[in-house]
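Bug report

Summary: structure tokens for Sodium:solute symporter family protein differ between web form and batch submission.
Environment: batch mode, default settings.
Steps: 1) Submit the sequence below via batch. 2) Compare with the web form result.

Sequence submitted:
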Amino acid sequence: MEALHQLSGPVVLGLFLAFFGASLIISLRISKKRENADGYMTGGGKLGFGISAASMTATWIWAASMYASATSGYTYGLSGPIHYGLWGALMILLIYPFGRRIRKVAPRAHTIAEVMFARHGRSSQLLLAGSNVLGSLISLTSNLIAGGALIDLLSPFTFGQGVIAIGAGVLLYTLWAGFRASVLTDFMQVLFMLGAVVIIIPVVFFAAGGPSLFETGAHNLTPQQSSFFSSDAFFNQGAPYIAAVLAYAIGNQTIAQRLFAVREDLIKKTFVTATFGYGATIIGIGMLGVIALYAGIDPMGGDTNNLIPQMAATYLTPALVALFFVMIIGSLSSTADADLTALSSIVMADIYGQNVAGKRNANPRIMVLVGRITMIVAMTAGMYFAGSQLNILDLLVFVGALWGALVFPVIASFYWNRVTNVAFSVSVVAALAVFIPVRFEWIDMVGGVAIGFDVLSTLGIGVVLGLMAFGFFGLRTALVVGIGSTIAAAPFAIGFLHQYAVLSGSLVAYAVSTILCVVLTLASKKERFDFSLIKLRTGDFDPEEDFTGTPPQSAEIDMSSIRK
């Protein structure tokens, strides 16, 4: 293997100062002496198409997803990045049909958990908020791990120094203006990322051998890695990610925040655009892992998180290494700042705004202070956990599967007026209680136990596909797809699926939460819920002019309905 091209210390410091300095200047120019709490969380809900599409694209083309896609390519061959990027893109696409319904019933909300409080009550809200705190911390940690690996391989600085420098840089510019800083810097960051990908992937491919590499390096692949229709890739990567896409689309606060921020009539246009941008970029960057596999390259230290920076340092010139460095810094910053703003919004709106002070007595200035303190604490925690250097792909699949327990109860709560707080809470907790031992293989999958979990997993297949169909085509089509796919999959899945713990755990979580939510809802005699109450129970905490200069359209709050 060729010698690695590293950047000198002064060059790295210069790139850091240029990138984070420009981000800080943007943040300071839009920050206010008297910060608006709603603008700090969602930008006032009036973002236009360009900045919203760029923000969604940049947020989801994060360093961790780049690294995970390359890991998938290296592990599973050509089909790995396609499974990763294609289903990730589907996740973004699935947001808009459900997103339009969510915005219709809660046009001025800040978090999905806040809407669950208005729909059900405190326990449902805290379940959703708690899962997002965990998910955003894992996401933040993943990005810091990716950044530390980048610094360690491409510069004279260590992994730990890289984690601290990147964490401090992201925190510095995000702290002042919150969500507005995140979305406005995203536009700059997505330009860096897309431009760099167009240049870097072809350069690495031809430097590694070009088209002839697929012949000379074919002996480095197993038969499964050589197959475009690899069953290993599908059951270990593709299928778990298909199950996870709905969970990310519904449960992820970084996505929900952009859903509540974009102008309501631009939701479809924004998320369809981001779908294509994400899919093309992530599949492309994942090919670096495929190239490494064909070239017979072993990840440094046996850590697949090192693959992308290792490929760049091996095949790129120093100038292109600098461009690559900025691309990765931009991708991880765009998502790390989104994680910080997501966490701050949850603590501001769901913990302080609803459960500590109460919406009626919440002080907007204290809310902003709480949000900033949350960012500092979250970044400190992320830096600490990044020291473990966990596998990024494993982290992402775990979070997606974990959120699977929430998907049906959350979606049903926006469409079905009979779903109760008890049905929501019990179904989610029970699904999590089943998911964790299955996912971590604490249960011996033999005999009747294995068959029982396979039956649940098969029902989970029907739930996942049925919910996807419901988003685009409605209830009747969803029932046909869900029942039909369950029946079709049963002969193949029962007696087989328990061998794949990641996939089985996710599907079981879907099945258990759906069955319990439906049964408990049908058993309840509670009055049907009036969805118009959600609009009254959610809204602005700080009814002042937002950063676009547009007066907010906060709904009048009927305090009697909140007390009810």
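Above is the batch result. After comparison, the two runs are identical; trailing whitespace caused the diff. Residues 36 and 230 are 52 Å apart (CA to CA). The two ends are 69 Å apart (CA to CA).
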